[in-house]
Design goal:
The protein is of the alpha/beta class. It has one domain: TIM Barrel (Alpha-Beta Barrel). It has eight helices and 14 strands. The strands form five sheets. Strands 2, 3, 6, 10, 11 and 14 form a six-stranded parallel beta sheet that branches. Strands 1-9 form a two-stranded antiparallel ribbon. Bound molecules: zinc ion. The site of zinc ion (ZN) has 6 residues, from strand 2.
């Protein structure tokens, strides 16, 4: 497992990212009866179960995007990663396990055949780890993708989640849904609260994403009390906490 890859920050790569975001591969319209908030955890470290505890305590379920080359490994930054027992526990508790590629491949840089093969390996590895359920949610590693990869992901999964910030309102691309990152800084908290307010006002669908969860998370993770605050506020404001595929159903994005 390559733990330290960074997507290209060159000008052409940044332009490409913008163009891909605007070109919708799978048009859908978000029309829920009530705003929907979806907490998601990428890669994912075992401490993300702390996030599951909070969302569950407030009557909802969350999404966990599993990168299978990290399964049973110890990340130098995020600590112990999920294993087959973690997947079983999440299933038993009604949370959703999503795909996140096997090798955490940059889907903007890799050829489509490589992306397809890597996601295929991801699904096979999940099956071999005892996850027999259909996997219908996907998140792009680093949020990186191409138009071709989005098309393919849209054929295979109900939803693809990116990391470009924003609330999913009105016409969206269900294979590159926007998401707000949760982190440790005051800026992260302010942005998350502002996005939640927009989600409520526009009756939209808001994804939050992070990695590890704890009282003192890493720079990739989110504090327990931030997740708690957002979950409480979302419910007070009339939102539903739903895992990705249920969220897609509630929003009318899929049947
Ligand atoms: Zn990831």
């Amino acid at each position: 497992m390559q733990w330290a890859y960074t997507p290209s920050r060159t000008f052409p790569a940044r332009v490409q990212r913008r163009v891909v975001q605007w070109r919708k591969a799978c048009q859908a319209t978000v029309t829920p009866d009530r705003p929907v908030v979806t907490f998601t955890f990428d890669d994912f470290p075992k401490s993300a179960l702390n996030g599951a505890d909070i969302v569950e305590k407030h009557g909802g379920r969350a999404g966990f995007y599993a990168c299978t080359s990290m399964m049973g490994q110890r990340s130098p930054v995020m600590g112990e990663m999920f294993d087959a027992d973690t997947l079983a526990e999440l299933r038993a508790r009604g949370h959703e396990v999503g795909a996140h590629t096997h090798s955490h491949v940059d889907c903007a840089r890799a050829r489509l055949e490589k992306v397809e093969r890597d996601i295929g390996e991801n699904l096979v590895a999940l099956g071999e780890a005892g996850h027999g359920e259909t996997v219908s949610a996907f998140a792009f590693p680093y949020g990186e993708t191409s138009y071709a990869a989005k098309r393919w992901v849209g054929d295979v999964f109900a939803t693809g989640r990116g990391i470009l910030p924003g609330v999913n309102t009105g016409d969206v691309d269900r294979s590159q849904l926007r998401a707000i990152e949760l982190g440790v800084s005051a800026w992260h908290r302010r942005r998350a609260l502002a996005a939640l307010k927009t989600c409520i006002e526009t009756k939209g669908w808001l994804f939050f994403f992070t990695h590890d969860v704890g009282a003192s998370p890493t720079s990739y993770g989110a504090p327990t009390d931030l997740i708690e605050e957002l979950a409480v506020r979302a419910l007070e404001d009339g939102a539903v906490l739903a895992a990705p595929t249920l969220g897609a159903v509630l929003c009318g994005v899929i049947d």
